[in-house]
Each structure stands twice: as C-alpha cells, then as structure tokens.
Amino acid sequence: MKLDRTQITYIFFGGLFLVVLLFYFVVISPGLSRQEQLERSISKRKTDLVKITELKKKWENYKRDQSEVEQALKSRGNQFTLLSFLEAVTREVGIDKNIQYIKPVTFSPSEGAGAFKPEGIEMSLDNVGMEQLVNFLYKVEHSGNLLFIKRIKILKTSRGASSTLKATLQVNTYVRS
Questions:
Q1: Which helix (DSSP H) or strand (DSSP E) does residue 41 occupy?
Q2: What is the mean pLDDT of residues 89-115?
Q3: Residues of 148-169 as b/e, b for ≥16 C-beta within 10 angstroms?
C-alpha cells in the first residue's frame, strides 16, 4: 500500500500533534501545576513569616518587661512588704488616722502560676481631702516598687460646709514565687 503525498502530510501532522499533546501532558502540565503549588506554598510561608515576626516582637517585649519587673523587685529588696509600705505612705501623706480597714486580698492559685505571684491589699480611707488622696495615689503608683491600683471607689461625703472623700482601693504588686 502506497501512500500519496496528502496522506503522508496528514499522518505527519497527526503524529506531530500527538507528540506535542504528549509533551504537554508529560512535561508542561505537571510543571505548571508544580509552579502553582510552589506559589501557594510561598504565599503561605510569607504569612507564616509575618506571624513569626509578630510573635518574636511580643516575646521580646515580654522578656524586656520581665527583666524590668525583676529589676524592680531586686531594687526594692527582700525586706519589702506591701502592708508596711502602704502604712508608711499614709503616715507620710498624713492620712494614717483616716484608715477604716486594711485587709489582704486573696488570689486564685491560677493567678499565681509562674515566676511571680500577685499580692494585694484592700484598704478603706474615710474623711480624706482631695489633695491628700491624689498625693497618696501618686506616691503609691510612682514609688518604683512595682505597685499598681487595680480598683478604686471614691464617694463624696459632706459634713456641714466641708466636703471630704471616702475611698476604697485595692493595691496590688508582685513577689517572687
């Protein structure tokens, strides 16, 4: 069987088409899908890198804060007690006679987990002037002894022409576990 020139041309282009089709399915298509997969992987890795960078910043801030807390605890010494400090500040401000009560605050065991445990005192002051209260709060917050006022309730009390305040507050700090 002899093929004429037109049939040979058809067979040649048909074979060429099959070779090109085979080349596409064997080489090009897997390469394109692999490229898409790599682009998705790169995109995911970029978002992971952003998250890791954010976590690194948070960790560095945490370590810096921890070192500042440790420095504050070291600077106030081992003899520091919150009760005696607050009593000294009330004497210094002149409101030690206005103390209604002082009681320790208890914390749950989960709050004390870690290197530091919280310690707190609730105190009530009666017949205190505005300037005295502000002075007391300033000396507590800015003492450099890692103290902070967690809760405060201030009521205005009037007796005749004079007006004073009744304050109930909770002062917290941290101590080494």
A1: helix 29-76
A2: 84
A3: eeeeeeeeeeeeeeeebbbbbb
